[in-house]
Amino acid sequence: MKHFLSLSQFTRDEVQALVDLARELKANPIGERMHRKVVGLLFMNPSLRTLASFQAGVGHQGGISVVIQPGAGSWSLELRDGVVMDGEAVEHVREAIPVLASYCDLLGIRSFAGQKDLAEDLDDATIQRLASFSTKPVINMESASDHPCQALADWMTLDELGIPASGNFVLTWAWHPKPLPYAVPNAALMMAAQRGMNITVQCPEGYALPSRMIDRAHQLGAASIRTCHNRTEGMAGAQVVYCKSWCSEEFYGQPEKEIAKRAGLRDWCLSESWFEPAVPDAKVMHCLPVRRNVKIADEVLDGPRSVVIQEAENRLHAQKSVMISMLEGLKPWN
Ligand code: CP
Question: pTM for the complete prediction?
């Protein structure tokens, strides 16, 4: 069974087919292509966009969605194998997922990084394991190190902005009070690499992305990749600046040390000054949610270079495209 766990499991042509259908669905959003289909949405972690856009998308196409939020109206779930379940968790995913799948035609799962073991999180082993319990195709709604629905919507947004496949993509780090996982920066990096872009990873010293991620981005076809700690150099030539915070590899799984390490980095809040004088037309992307005036200044979010609302809207169309392609056996499920 073919799931949708990572954009990088598909060829560039296959991704483009999904984007093409998403564009058609954006032009004609209402239909019956999911008539009486049931989509289960299992959220181990909170959401606004993913939850609302999946439910809206299923409804637009005549289906229904079933939302399960363990510990918030449904049983708390245990993910680990071999444990004595005498704590908070009442049910194991080994029962919960196949039961839910038996009621549904498709299953979305969100399960964030444990942020304890870097190798385990970069392997994205948990989402693969959870998908293996499902008898129906699974859509990754954000896992330890990937967010393919976001990446597909971002690809679509770059196309709409007219950014060339080989354009200049700056993935910039921003300060955040907590060390965040690699899921979104990894998904954005791989998406830009699959398009064949020239990529700059801009970050303070100590926040370079793990070499394993950079190696994979090269394999996927990035035209070039550089890591830059100087913002004037990093921003030069940018057509798109994708803003996100992530944790330092050095202190992965050690949040107190990590938070101390980033203490002097609060000036890494994306403001208009970053674009002066060389990159007046660069667009700004962020997956949302964003902490205003912490990661991105009001002047940027409220100004003409921000496309964050367009990106979020495109989640709706991109996810519809994935669900319909799965249900109808369209490329890449043909
Ligand atoms: N970008 C994104 O996935 O948003 P939510 O966490 O609100 O779903």
Answer: 0.98
Q: Which atom of ligand 1 is nearest to the CA of 287?
A: 1
CATH number of 150-311: 3.40.50.1370
Centre a 10 Å sphere on the Cβ of residue 111 and count the other Cβ atoms it contains: 22
Ligand 1 within 6 A of CB of 290: no
Model confidence pLDDT, tens digit, residues 174-222? 999 999 999 999 999 999 999 999 999 999 999 999 999 999 999 999 9
Asked whether 172 lines ligand 1 (CB < 6 A), one says no
What would the two tokens of residue 288 be? Answer: 């949302």
Report the nearest atom of ligand 1 relative to the CA of 46. Answer: 6
Q: Do domains 7-147+315-328 and 150-311 have the same CATH topology?
A: yes
Widest CA span in the chain: 60
142 lines ligand 1 (CB under 6 A): yes
Give residue 89's pLDDT. 96
138: β partners: 107
Please name the residue whose Cα sits nearest to atom 1 of ligand 1.
287
Q: Please report, for residues 92, 168, 318, the alpha-carbon distance to residue 88 in angstroms, rounded to integers and kept in the order given.
A: 11, 48, 36
Structural domain spans, the chain:
7-147+315-328, 150-311
Q: Which tens digit of pLDDT belongs to each residue from 109-120?
A: 999 999 999 999
Is 7-147+315-328 assigned to CATH 3.40.50.1370?
yes
- What's the pLDDT at 279? 85
Atom 3 of ligand 1, nearest CA residue: 50
Q: Which residues on neighbouring strands pair with residue 169, listed in sequence order?
A: 199, 240
